[in-house]
Write a structure and sequence with these properties.
Blueprint: H1 15-25, E1 31-35, E2 53-58, E3 61-66, H2 75-93, E4 103-106, H3 113-121, E5 126-130, H4 144-148, H5 150-166, E6 169-172, H6 177-183, E7 191-193, H7 211-214, E8 221-226, H8 236-244, E9 250-255, H9 261-267, E10 274-278, H10 285-289, E11 294-298, H11 303-306, H12 311-318, E12 323-326, H13 330-338, E13 341-344, H14 349-361, H15 364-382, H16 384-406
Parallel strand pairs: 1-3, 4-5, 5-6, 6-7, 8-9, 8-11, 9-10, 11-12, 12-13
Antiparallel strand pairs: 2-3
Length: 410
Amino acid sequence: MVTQFYAPEPGPATLPSNLAETLARRGHEVRVVTGFPNYPTGRLADGFKLARRSDEVRHGVAVRRVYLYPDHGSAAGRMANYGTFGLSSVVSGVSWLSDADAVWVNASPITLAWPIWALRAMRLPVVSHILDLWPESLFATGFGRLAENAPVRRALDAWTGSIYRSSHLVAYISPGVHDVLRSRGVPERKLRYVPMWADEATFAPGGKSMRNELGIAEDSVVLAYAGALGEAQGLETLIDACREITDPRFVCIVAGSGGSEQALRARARDVTAIRFIGRIPQPRMTDLMASIDASYVSLRDTHLGRVSTPSKTQAALAAGVPVVAAARGDVRRVIENARAGLGADPSSVSSVVDAIRQFCSMSVSDRAHLAENARRTYETKFSLERGAAEVEKMLQQAASDHRKQVQPDA
């Protein structure tokens, strides 16, 4: 496996380690090339020291960490972070995988193209998992003006196209991405829908409510947004909607941090229903999810937003928490089709107000029914075991096809 993000980094960064450890439990020998942990703060995690490379065994998985520049504080810092890992993985990592049968690559950020090219040159079959759609993701990570430049866009399109051509199989995590990849010339035979899972050690029913700790009454109706506070989420609509809610039971928790945090706090200064509680440590997310009645998932109405399923969606479903999906496209369809929550227009304050009021007006048993549907949807469509089994099939197919190409008479 090659992935820039890996445990002990929190949140979505834990998902590749979930996969690696599950494949190891299934009897496979798994090796991982990754970076030194620094997400999301840009500071090196305690107990780690930067070096050209460092090997360890973590939960039964052999892990090689290679140098990167730890910085997530600015667009330039992220560019340096992504670029140094991409280069280091080629220089100090992929040769360690030379005898692998197949390689799974978390094909984000776009600099993961470099180890993919190196693996292809080594004649190793690659399964690329498209966790973020590039170059569209540049619009959400501080490089929007750069990506709008026509020559740059053509170069980025060629860059991403080379990832697909260099991959034996390509997995995508949200249904709408299928049509995007087909429009870019990726053959149908290469494509597989493999949605991501949640960190099931963290997101599961059974946590201890934090309501008393947070000073929230037990009969309150609590909606929470937990995640990055950035431009892509469009959280201004949520704040303006909360200003219109008059139900005295309603409380909205905003947990997390990001580039839009100060502006959002200022916008919410006169909104008594909203509480900003900062970033919650990963181990405490289980308890936070046990404290709320619904999770708020939002994406601005952009092309990328319509074909994205944020990891917080699976996290809420895994915890058995209904979702208020302020989005258009894939994530909203998942929630509404499963009857696991409510949908809203991400650009309309009145639409979000209507969804919140509808949720508040539900009986306890009706909200419990949504919660049951949420958990059932996770188990049947998004579980780690299901996802790992699909990835396992892809790796086995890639390895088998490669052997037939190398030894056609075998």
